[in-house]
Specification:
Layout (H helix, E strand, L loop, with lengths): L2 E3 L4 E5 L2 E5 L7 E8 L2 E8 L2 E7 L8 E7 L2 E8 L2 E7 L9 E5 L5 E6 L8 E6 L6 E6 L8 E8 L7 E6 L8 E8 L3 E7 L6 E7 L10 E2 L3 E6 L4 E12 L2 E10 L7 E5 L2 E4 L2 E6 L1 E6 L12 E7 L5 E7 L3 E6 L11 E6 L9 E5 L2 E5 L4 E6 L7 E7 L8 E9 L2 E8 L2 E7 L6 E10 L6 E8 L3 E12 L2 E14 L9 E2 L3 E5 L11 E11 L5 E10 L7 E3 L2 E5 L2 E3 L3
Parallel strand pairs: 1-48, 2-20, 15-19, 25-43, 34-38, 38-42
Antiparallel strand pairs: 1-2, 3-23, 4-5, 5-6, 6-7, 8-9, 9-10, 10-11, 12-13, 13-14, 14-15, 16-17, 17-18, 18-20, 21-22, 22-23, 24-25, 26-47, 27-28, 28-29, 29-30, 31-32, 32-33, 33-34, 35-36, 36-37, 37-38, 39-40, 40-41, 41-43, 44-45, 45-46, 45-47
Length: 570
């Protein structure tokens, strides 16, 4: 999934996986979908010939008609409880009679609510605002000439006026889009489905996070853009409606094959998973230089723990063993698989402990050692190290420092404490005083990602936290891991609750075998940092199965790059 992230909007691509057909020759245009219980409902329309259809399995069982000849021009569909609400006009066109029609699941009309005064030029999408009360979000009609800024109204059933209005920026993402449908999820925000022309096979989903407003809830910029492009022999693949089920976005499309056959169908974006309050997707992971066990020829070290750039685009790393011997090294050509690494300094007295995290700032390497110590190592080898002791200002007696990153504010570092899966974020400054007080900022919610690693912060891109998921074999959790997720947190979303949820995560796309055909035994993400080429670089502890080694395993620790994402910092 190639994409970009500029700190505000994440742009990625996804390919829909086709599901069941939505047949109905009398009504040709899919206008809306909604799920009631385990059943998927759909409306198709041609003028005032509208059909309500249903399927019990939108991936395998074609939809069948529940009721035909609903005398409305359907424009959207949503559900609240066990009832369906159809956005419609009483003529083929937009505006003049815009109405919300309440239906039961048999297609019987139970009531109508005219929103013509609220949407005088018509509307093109409807979604339930909270899923419990009869409150709706309506997307106003816009054609190609004025689709750069989209207008929305929040309306209560039978209300004379909108409860609120807001706009969403719909420009700067490529082509100018045609509006199709909307869907709102209380955890993931507002999804706006659009597409290009009928024949380009280009579709787009804008995602709006209501926490991130440009103007006190009146204006929003999409936090995510998903380009949904279909390849193959199609004359048309036009996504028309959207909802969510089983942790994935479900879509309905108007499809015309290369021979002119209409094959309207459901589809699913399986490449993006929504769970809790976080969505995750696979990201390419390219191997770079290896970091051998003997960076210092006099000592063998096995645990590659952290990485940080020193300002001239050279990454420094620490590799240690048994929390006693730690080697600080660097690699100038870190994405060259044949490149070697260089030794800088070795510590044999346990000063750096496990060396969980490191951040380079103002000519010093600040390393998280054991017992809540931070050791500052000068880039001048002759200078002595400075050891700081960190205590939290919230008097948390279980405080256990694990990670560090500078650049949060002027001369200010971010610190991460991890205790029994609880992640607490602090900030502090390291100056002359050796006993440092850390100020509590928030608790990072890390559901579903058992092991937290290092952190990286950029004042435009936000906070990244590396995590790994150990395998579970026969109910027993092992230390072996090959699945890693880099979580992103937006500190702009921090509120009085002091709880911050990750908004998205990159799942590393690890192949089963390395370039030499050896099977990976473990693959553990340890630390990340951004290079001057705006690529996110990682260091990982890696073992492959290799019968030529006495242990049956060979260490292939090294550098990696998230190579399908470009980070825009300008």
């Amino acid at each position: 999934m190639p994409g970009t992230f500029n700190g505000t909007t994440l742009t990625i691509s996804a390919t829909p996986v086709d599901g069941a057909l939505i047949p109905d020759k009398s009504a040709t245009n899919v206008a809306g979908i909604a799920i009631v219980g385990s059943d998927m409902y759909c409306v198709k329309t041609t003028g005032l010939k509208t059909t309500l259809l249903k399927t019990t399995d939108y991936m395998a069982t074609k939809a069948t008609a529940v009721k035909k000849d609903l005398n409305w021009f359907a424009l959207g569909l949503t559900k609240i409880g066990n009832y369906l609400y159809m956005l419609a006009e009483d003529h083929k066109g937009y505006g003049g009679s815009t109405t919300i029609v309440k239906l039961d699941t048999k297609g019987n009309q139970l009531g109508t609510y005219s929103i013509n005064e609220i949407c005088p030029k018509g509307a093109l999408g409807i979604t339930a605002a909270d899923g419990t009360n009869e409150k709706f979000i309506i997307m106003h009609y816009a054609d190609k000439s004025n689709a750069g800024t989209l207008a929305f109204s929040v309306v209560d059933w039978k209300a004379a006026e909108a409860a609120s209005t807001f706009t969403v920026t719909n420009s700067g993402f490529g082509y100018t889009t045609r509006l199709q449908d909307i869907y709102y999820h209380t955890s993931f925000g507002l999804f706006i489905l659009t597409n290009n022309t009928f024949s380009t096979l280009q579709n787009r989903i804008l995602v709006v996070d209501y926490h991130l407003t440009d103007d006190k809830g009146k204006k929003y910029t999409p936090c995510s853009v998903i380009n949904v492009n279909k390849t193959g022999e199609y004359k048309q693949y036009n996504l028309e409606s959207i909802c969510m089920k089983a942790n994935h976005l479900v879509l309905a499309s108007n499809v015309i094959t290369s021979d002119g056959t209409a094959e309207d169908k459901f589809s699913v974006l399986e490449g993006i998973t929504y769970s809790g309050k976080t969505y995750t997707f696979a990201c390419g992971f390219k191997a770079g230089a290896r970091v051998p066990t003997k960076v210092d020829p006099n000592y063998e070290t096995t645990n590659l723990g952290c990485v940080s750039f020193n300002g001239n685009n050279t990454p420094y790393f620490i590799k240690q063993s048994q929390d006693k011997v730690a080697v600080l090294g660097y690699c100038k050509n870190y994405m060259n698989t044949s490149a070697g690494v260089s030794h800088f300094k070795t510590f044999t007295d346990g000063l750096l402990g496990h060396a969980n995290g490191m951040s380079c700032f103002n000519g010093k390497f600040f390393v998280v050692a054991g017992n809540n110590k931070v050791v500052a190592i000068s880039s001048n080898k002759e200078d002595e190290e400075i050891t700081y002791t960190v205590t939290p200002n919230d008097n948390d007696k279980s405080f256990a420092l694990k990670a560090i990153n500078y650049f949060y504010e002027a001369n200010t570092a971010l610190l991460l404490s991890v205790v029994d899966g609880t992640l607490k974020l602090y900030k502090c400054t390291f100056e002359n005083e050796k006993n440092v007080k850390a100020t509590y900022l928030c608790t990072l919610v890390n559901a579903g990602q058992p092991t937290s690693q290092d952190i990286f912060y950029h004042n435009k891109l936000g906070l990244f936290v590396g995590t790994s998921n150990p395998h579970t074999v026969s109910g027993v959790t092992t230390k072996i891991t090959t699945k890693n997720t880099l979580l992103h947190y937006n500190l702009k979303k921090l509120d009085d609750s002091k709880l911050l949820y990750p908004d998205f995560g990159f799942v590393t796309d690890i192949p089963a075998k390395d370039a030499q055909g050896r099977t990976y035994n473990s693959f553990e993400l340890e630390s990340v940092a951004l290079d001057q080429n705006n690529k996110l670089i990682a260091v990982c502890n890696v073992n492959v199965k290799d019968a030529t080694h006495t242990s049956g395993l060979a260490s292939t620790d090294g550098f990696f790059q998230y190579n399908t994402l470009e980070f825009i910092t300008a």
